[in-house]
Amino acid sequence: MTNPTSSVATTGSPGSRALGLATLAGLVGLLVLAFVLTEPDVRIHPSTGQEIGQFDAVRLLYLHVPMAVITYVAYSLAAFASAGYLIKRTPWWDVTAHAAAEVGTVFCFLVLVTGSIWGRPVWNTWWEWGDVRLMTTLILFLMFVGYLALRRTAADPRVQARRAAVVALVAIVDLPLVNRSVEWWENRTLHQKSTLGELKIEDLTLFTLMVGFLVFLMVFSWLLLHRFRVGWLTLAAGEHQVAAAIKERRAEADGSGVASAVGETS
Amino acid sequence: MKSLLSEAWLVASKDLRIEARSRVLTNQVAPFAVLVLVLFGFALDADQRTLRMFAPGLFWVAVLLCLLLAVQRSSAVESADDAATGLRMAGLAPAAVFLGKSAAIFVQLLVLELLLTAGIIVFYGSSVKNLFLWLIAGLVTALAVATTGMLYGALASGLGVRETLLPILLLPVLAPVLIGATRAYDDALGAAAVDGWAWTGLLAMFAVVASTLGALAYGALVED
Amino acid sequence: MVRVGGRRRYRYGVPVIQLCDVVALLGRFPALAGASLSVEAGETVLLQGPNGAGKTTLLRLCAGLVRPESGQAQVLGHDLSVDGRPVRRQVAMLGHATGLYEDLSVAENVSFWAQAAGLDKSLAAQRATGALGRMGLDERLLSLPVSRLSAGQRRRASLAALAVRRPQLWLLDEPHAGLDQTGRNVVDELISDAVAAGATVLVASHELERVRSLNPRVVTVAGGLIVKDTGGPK
User: Fold this and answer.
1) How far is CA C58 from CA A6, B111, B146, B188, in A?
2) N or C: which end of chain C has fewer CB within 10 A?
3) Are C175 and C81 in the same domain?
4) Cβ of C36 and A249 within 8 Å?
């Protein structure tokens, strides 16, 4: 488990290919459900009789909400694996943390983008400063952008792993404080808990949302799996390099003109 | 515990003595802090009433910018001639080094806060309405950002990209502190009707978590 | 192992340094590629070898600053693959940098490092004065900031900062570099004094003739290995 081997020559495997195909099919199904089969959110105002609601914008939520949940799953996994690394100090935990953080950041970005697009017609603004979840997610995103920046430095792999683990853990510890402070900051939120409750939770709406969770969980798993394997192969390549370099270095010693090694003292 | 504190004191007094000799704080950081206040005035193109309203936020943004300089300076002092290795060889407890260097940054921030307070009084026409809250919130926030800054200074050091990596790592984490400290000073400076003490409580919590976490994590960061 | 004055002292005959097939990496570069070496207390060892042979890494490893990647490494009875910290505080390592603070005076620097090593203030100041005197640093220099010193003077101050700790193991990387004739003699005296006091000294140097006068055991390092050794523990 701790020693990367070269037995994995590709990031694909029969299992991951099957998962990939299933994920692709699921995504198509989800898009059909979200953008074709479900109804737009239209309600009649009880007193004025006007049409109100989110109309077609609600369709984005079938993507946005599951992705947001996956973002938090990914970052929690990254923090958990970071803690695991600091305790166990084995590369498996480090590669897992890196993979989860990177995939999580992709999801987090998509969450912010879809949220912003959704907010334009519904909240009538691209960006709402007073919204707790929006601000918390943005800060979370920025913290992990820093994490990935640290990951891209040319530091010694172990130094980098240790520092990145601390950054990920601090980010997660800091998160409740970010959330709390933003909440107190404006003491109001557009992201009322009722956002979902306001919808007519019909059978198909709920079903589509559930499919969304499942499909994005599959997307996440597929990406995570491959990102992990890339990390693992990189590690294996590194070890391979080191082994070759040691051999080369020893040859250098033999060729240095000095007689046989007598370093072995009894 | 006693040796931890005395070792921390040794490191802190060393750093402060270096700052007293080199005068980087008085000759560079302090003028920079005032400059930031003036630049805000230009950028906002505002009359004093608007500036007074925004003064708490501008004050703390200026403090955070100065924090970046102070942390980088604190780290540069150790890396200039590899004194960092000396500290490792000396057998000082990493937690003591962390607390000592944080304390030195803390003291420097307090000086800057005093100066910036004078700055917003002069330039923005602010006035301290609640002296006690101003003092306590100022102390607690300086502690919170000094310890967090020190931890992230260690995270970003020795990679050759300290100057650019530090802000992106540090500033998002300090977002709650910026919000909290701004709100506390909204109250202390009478810029908005909020409960500054509740925010000071949040800041204190942050400061305690940051000092503890920093003291614990610092060892793992500087060893090997 | 016997305890003297609260600190562990090692009996003669017990290896102070025991390395067996040690690999140490700098990033991905194997600076040590399987080095084995055993050094007993009180020995003077000269490490020689071409640039890039791994001498500096060998010293840094023994100082507990570089962790062994594989193989066994014990220094002063502590396993370096577990934790270098207990070793570090008992060892003096002179590297290429001097580890001095530019803005503090020479006396303040040496006194700080003495206090950092656990000496109380008055003892630190007392030993600092003694060590600086022995390093041949003029009294007038002591109150000057380090930034005003020449490279050779800094090196002497740096050695004084190490000497105050009275370490059991000295690891000196090119200690003669950048020193004038008097300075070199001072270094030689420091080494023989340390050996006389029962300490173990490892010197990496290209100044072979100079160090040879100390009659050391000569260990040749090449390609990250110990390739020649004039004598080890029997």
Assistant:
1) 31, 46, 37, 59
2) C
3) yes
4) no
